């Protein structure tokens, strides 16, 4: 039986963005996510009990619940934001080596990313991939608009760094990095409230009730970040995909997300000798039961390791790019000595 026009595997960084766009076109989308969903009233205790089954409405999203569940305590959050089943009593899925790299849950690894949104180096794309950098630019723009990507705020520490760069390098003003230079990192945390920009003379509160709008500079990105406290789910400062893409996807009325559903197989049938995807089977991570979902199209958005694993374990056609195309993650640094009086 057909269950959706399109099934998307994974509600991490990419799955909700694809779901939003398809939903806007009127396509019926089911997203299957292996991990839990935080801040959704269908799952008030997502690590203690199975909760609901599906959610397809922004009415289910709750900023208050997110604040209760994302405690900002690092050890506790390392248990919640992990690559493993929602059930706290069971171990992580170990095969990816480092447990804290990939995160299972609606929002995926963006739940603990730091919101930096640099575009790729044009040369890295043009010299290494079968697409042109120019083809990516409209998509970069759309993501940057949707997630309110702006230059990261400059504190005294960053200002010192810029001071070291000046004289040697140019300030880069274009989003395309096609020459050497320095700049504030493009960032998807909403700009700090205006009152926090003035040299330490703000002595009010930091919640939405105090009028706080945007990043509070609390710096809890790696443990989820539920700030500003009291803000609606959609208005949290960190634009991880659960906040930036899931609400607009649900607003289309065509997208449903089913957490706690680990896809184990992509089904195919042969069309003129070539296998074509017809659906998937997933395992409920709470009770172990399996279910088959048929669809016209299957989108794999399960991350850099699980997507190729699923592809290679299913009867899908061979493609030389599966599992390839991963790039280095450079952290550029400028190191220098300052005169003490300048510090
Ligand atoms: C500590 C850290 C900081 C980072 N900071 C930044 C940053 O500042 N800027 C930046 O651009 N990038 C950053 N990244 C990288 C960024 O988070 C990832 O590149 C991005 O999340 C990848 O998106 P994705 O959709 O491919 O995979 P993911 O976000 O990992 O999502 C994959 C989803 O698929 C689900 N899934 C996997 N297998 C299955 C299955 N079989 N069935 C159902 N669901 C499945 C997973 O549970 C997960 O939710 C950071 C990463 C880490 C670890």
Structure commentary:
22% of the residues lie in helices and 15% in strands. It is α/β, with parallel strands linked by helices and 343 residues long. The strands form two sheets. It has a six-stranded mixed sheet. A two-stranded antiparallel ribbon has the order 3-4. Strand 7 and strand 8 form a beta hairpin. The protein is globular, with a radius of gyration of 22 Å. The model has no long low-confidence stretch (mean pLDDT 92). The site of flavin-adenine dinucleotide has 33 residues, from strand 6 and helix 9.
- State the CATH class: Alpha Beta
Order of helices and strands: EHEHHHHEHEHHEEEEH
**CATH 4th-level superfamily:** FAD/NAD(P)-binding domain
Quaternary organization:
single chain
The low-pLDDT segments are none
Q: Please identify, by name, the CATH architecture.
A: 3-Layer(bba) Sandwich
**CATH fold title:** FAD/NAD(P)-binding domain
* Gross morphology: globular
Overall SS class:
alpha/beta
Mean pLDDT: 92
Total count of domains = 1
For the CA atoms, what is the radius of gyration?
A: 22 Å
Ligand types? flavin-adenine dinucleotide
The side-by-side strand order for the widest beta sheet comes to: 5-2-1-8-7-6
């Amino acid at each position: 039986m057909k269950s959706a026009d399109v099934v998307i595997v994974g509600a991490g960084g990419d799955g909700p963005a694809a779901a939003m766009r398809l939903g806007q076109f009127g396509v019926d989308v089911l997203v299957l996510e292996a991990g839990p969903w935080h801040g959704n009233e269908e799952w008030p205790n997502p690590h203690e009990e199975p909760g609901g089954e599906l959610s397809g409405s922004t009415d289910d999203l709750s900023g208050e619940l997110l604040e209760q569940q994302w405690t900002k305590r690092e050890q506790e959050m390392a248990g919640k934001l992990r690559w493993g089943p929602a059930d706290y009593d069971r171990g992580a899925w170990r095969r990816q080596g480092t447990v804290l790299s990939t995160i299972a849950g609606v929002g995926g690894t963006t739940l603990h990313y730091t919101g930096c949104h640099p575009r790729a180096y044009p040369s890295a794309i043009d010299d290494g991939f079968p697409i042109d950098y120019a083809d990516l630019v409209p998509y970069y723009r759309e993501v940057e608009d949707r997630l309110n990507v702006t230059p990261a705020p400059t504190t005294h520490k960053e200002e010192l760094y810029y001071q070291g760069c000046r004289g040697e390098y140019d300030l880069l003003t274009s989003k395309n990095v096609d020459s050497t230079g320095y700049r504030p990192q493009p960032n998807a945390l909403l700009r700090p409230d205006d009152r926090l920009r003035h040299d330490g003379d703000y002595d009010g509160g930091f919640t939405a009730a105090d009028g706080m709008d945007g990043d509070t500079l609390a710096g809890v990105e790696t443990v989820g970040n539920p700030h500003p406290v009291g803000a609606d789910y959609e208005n949290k400062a960190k634009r991880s995909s659960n906040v930036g893409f899931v609400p607009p996807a649900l607003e289309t009325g065509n997208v449903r997300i089913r957490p706690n559903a680990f896809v184990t197989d992509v089904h195919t049938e042969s069309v003129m000798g070539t296998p074509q995807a017809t659906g998937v089977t997933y395992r409920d991570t709470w009770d172990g039961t399996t279910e088959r979902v048929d669809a016209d199209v299957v989108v794999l958005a399960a991350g850099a390791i699980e997507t190729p694993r699923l592809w290679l374990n299913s009867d899908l056609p061979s493609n030389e790019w599966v599992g390839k195309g991963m790039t280095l993650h450079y952290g550029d640094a400028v190191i220098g000595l300052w005169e003490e009086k300048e510090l």
